[in-house]
User: Fold these one by one.
Assistant:
Number 1:
Amino acid sequence: MTLRVPKAELPAELRENMMKQLGVVPEPVEVLWNNPELAAANQEFTARVSTWDAVDASLKTFAHMAVAAQVGCSWCLDINYFLALNQNLDLSKASQVPRWRQAEVFTPLERDVLEYAEAMTNTPPTVTDALSKSLLDRLGPAALVELTVFIGFANMAARCNTAHGITSQGYSDSCAVPLAARPADSDVASTV
């Protein structure tokens, strides 16, 4: 896949900050900068999302990776796996998110969060009352609302990146544990 929208020239200060933080400028930022007002609003919202703390960071990272694996956003998988490394999350678990149903490393709560992320990502969504109640009982209302909005955000990011032709930039290459591939015959309902 190749970029479907050209990269825009970033302001020098923003480019330098991105280079300091990540070593390279993220392609989604360069593509969105074609509309600077939108790009700034997206960066602001992304920064706000990263401050939410009602849900454990690993659950949110795994949920984002599950969305990315289902949508096919290699960029989101790549950056979230890299962020998992930098947040000292369990890389043996993070590496298995694309094949979480077959992996035996996840707790029952983590499995439910991954199932919830995929159910929200399905078209149409397939979230059940039972799954929602189970998460509500274990996480509480504030955390479930946060998790739901976070998964919605992950869907927006993954779908925009995929539509723009943005793919992995190799962030996860620094991770010691290789990222597992999603099974070809996944039992997840397809997205349209």
Number 2:
Amino acid sequence: MVSYAEFGAAVDKAKLGIGPAELHGSLTGYLCAARSVRANGLLSALQLESDDAGVPDPLHALLDEMVPEICAALRAGGAVLPLLLPAAPLAARADGMVDWCRGFLGGLGLAGAGTHGMLDPEARDLLHDFGEIAATHLECGDDDAVLVELLDFIRSGVARLHAALVSRAGK
């Protein structure tokens, strides 16, 4: 599994204007919407471009590792879905989770999954909940139980959204 630090270094070097947690969330959101593209096409699909054409190559190599892992986790129901967050104090991990959710919603939107009229009420509620998380600043104190509970909710919510979007795509 690619580490947050390794991915963060490649993202920083690519100068995409997005942080590693948010980019990982965007990738997951895009892939959750049953979109499949080659890893080197994901940055374009997410409308992210580097100022230096040669810089994203290390990032593409990491994406080549991450995309199959994310797709496998989505197919498995999301319980093992990796959320790439910093190995840092609780406040930084909570901020990373908020960024991840923001990216996830953006990735879903770019994949065309945000058409509320076509989603069932549960999926619409989940999108609303993800939006609430993405718009918040989580105060966790010293107890990471709140963060762990939210991460579990996010994983199960992503799995339910993926199931709803895949079944909708099959119709």
Number 3:
Amino acid sequence: MPNKRKIVMPTPEEDAVINAGIDADPDTYELSRTEFDQLKPIRPRGRPLGSGKKEQLTVRFDADVIEVFKGAGDGWQTKMNDALKDWLKTHNVT
């Protein structure tokens, strides 16, 4: 179902009152176009970019193994990947 909200813009009189309030506030001012263009987001949105070197696949692990890694909090999949890399350093898999 489409969003049926209607945006009601302020009248010129209401806009003048709003701008007068902004002008009266010593803690704020209107940015110039140059200042506005220089603003950057505090942090990028969405997931962080990956290395581009990973492949997506489906793997089944025991529930207790997944529980331990998930219990470590955010980044548990990266931690699991790092644990497998460490394991590969000490085991000859050919």
Number 4:
Amino acid sequence: MDAIIRPSSDLRNHYSEISKECHENRTPVIITVNGRGDTAVMGLQDYYQMRSELELLRTLAEAEEDVVNGRVSPMQETFDDIRKSLLERKSDEV
């Protein structure tokens, strides 16, 4: 879905239309100043989803880098370490 392009005056004069477009159609709106793109407007839900997806991609890229550089350990060993850490936290809480 392509972004909608609107001049900055529309942000001031037609905010409710822009907000409705962002929420109902989940379409970003690009605000221009003097004919050049300046700001992107999107619904808050889409913003949070985009941030979550970006964080996941960063995590996956780091994991891939670890694999490429040989920074890996056997899966069972990893799960054992996680289990041990969780049990230690639980015993500290008691």
